[in-house]
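Troubleshooting: if your tokenizer reports a length mismatch, compare your output against this known-good record of 441 residues.
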Amino acid sequence: METLIIVIFLLGYLQITLEHNLKIDKLIPALGMMAILWAILAYFHLDVFEVNAELKELEPVELEEILLHHLGKTAEILFFLLGAMTIVEIIDYFDGFAAIKGYIKTRSKRKLLWIFSILAFILSAIIDNLTATIVLITILQKVIKDRETRLWFAGLIIINANAGGAWSPIGDVTTTMLWIAGKVEAGTLVLRVLIPSIICMIVPTIIASRFKVFSGEVDVEEKPTEGGSKYGPRMLYLGLGAIVFVPFFKTITHLPPYVGMMLSLAIVATFAEIYSNKKISITSVNEESVEGAHHSPVHAALTHIEMPSILFFFGILMAVAALESLGILFTYAEQLNHAIPSRDIVVMLLGAGSAVIDNVPLVAASMGMFSEPKDDFLWHFIAYAAGTGGSMLIIGSAAGVVAMGMEKIDFFWYLKKIAWLALVGFVAGSLCFIAMRDFMF
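Known-good structure output:
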């Protein structure tokens, strides 16, 4: 029966990987295989287990108990993501991200490369790598007219956004998963992964800055476009500050991160409603403006939430949980340890694998495979590898996929021009992490 379960999981996994070829949204196979796997467990009354991390052994439990346990852990991640996504959409409702363009004054391509690289690195650590990529490529399209030049900038934005998301507990779905699951502490994660992530960002950017495509100047718009709302900058700083506040809230209260995110959302939403009401009073002489303005910014933000992504995370996390409950991942980890004694090689292979296969199920599987204690170096290396390894292919990360859609980047163009830069950065950061672990900590 375990063979059948593994086959079903691999078939679902294959459909997720071939999403673009099959033209079937990846949430469909994720939800389907999740439901089928748990149905098999229930119908055939298969024994389910919980991993005892301290004793490194499997303990039998009831199906209903383990199902509710995994549902609760998954819900923590999903509600955290929902809160963060809503705050970002509220910022966008007030056109807050337009304020970022005001910081870009130079015409030098090389300076612009560094500005966008640093912005990608910092923004992705706060609002996640996917959203940071969307924001920066939108700005890029307004700043640089030549498409070929923009493709190179977009490629470096992908690398640097993924590097920035790896060291922050709120910067990438995979690091958020590890943080919420109690595998890493926010402060220790930053301490151990920040410098390798900086190396992963700086090395490819230094190499690329010597390319001919980044020499000279660009033609920028004479009159930069203004933000659509005078409250945009305020909402930008308030929203980013509210998201950054969440790790501090968890440290102080020891409550799950989604509680802090809900508090941050409530604060941002309150100001959004206040500013929206002020906008209504100012434009009350215009009936059309009044009719449009009465729509709550919070309601508007919620309509733009990417529910397909939320449902995909739910499906894949619960599907992996089914394998974990059977003890399959635990057994596989033991076999892997015997086959490849070096954990560093295993983690780097996992990072390379995230370029081909979605990193969310890979990290979800790793949490069931390894029983190392909280804040073990293994978890921090997994956070780095899974976060940055996806840059090696355009389809290997959410940032890459969204950039591919926005700029129509060709898969093989990226493979030829950008992939090797991402590989060099990934390896350099990995070696930096290993050196820091062995000689500094």
